[in-house]
Amino acid sequence: MKQSMNVMIVGVGGQGTLLASRLLGAVFLKEGFDVKVSEVHGMSQRGGSVVTYVKAGEKVASPIIERGEADIILAFEQLEAARWLPYLKKGGRVIANTQKTDPMPVVIGAAQYPEGVLEATTAAGAELTAVDALSLAVEAGSPKAVNVVLMGVMARFLGVEYDVVKQAVADTVPEKFREMNLKALQLGFEAR
What we know:
By secondary structure, the protein is α/β, with parallel strands linked by helices. The chain has eight helices and six strands; from the N terminus they run βαβββαβααβαααα. It has helices at 17-30, 78-83, 104-107, 117-123, 133-140, 146-155, 162-172, 175-190; strands at 5-12, 34-40, 49-57, 70-75, 88-97, 127-131. The chain has a six-stranded mixed sheet, sandwiched between helices. It starts with a strand and ends with a helix. The relative contact order is 0.17.
């Protein structure tokens, strides 16, 4: 890993963003970095936007990531990738689930889900890695494993050994879900 890393994990309530932030924090701690994690919930319990900041480095003073500072945005949903794009640094990477979760205006028929959301991220200059994490999570054994699939995808770009990420998952998830989550991690890591 480089000297420091700023990662934003974004999604909607109930997608497992908070577990992903704990896993990522554990990875950075295992690598010997100072780590700060900040969770911002919004209307998370009602499917609203959720963002978590994870900062790692030799010494981290604040967990907050400002506009233009994120090395990686890990997006659990397409619109959330677009919403937080201004926080990505020039040359940064967006790792996005291709899944769409309709926001309330779409649900009630007042708006339509926009087309070309992920394409707009690359047009804005971001490096994009888009994966159908939901299908891979189902293959691993549960649609709730989307978060760990996305962690597997992100593991390719963190600059740490895969085994460090694997151990963080093994240490963090409950034993009865461990095998499924390790499979989800591997499927995400291998996704292209």
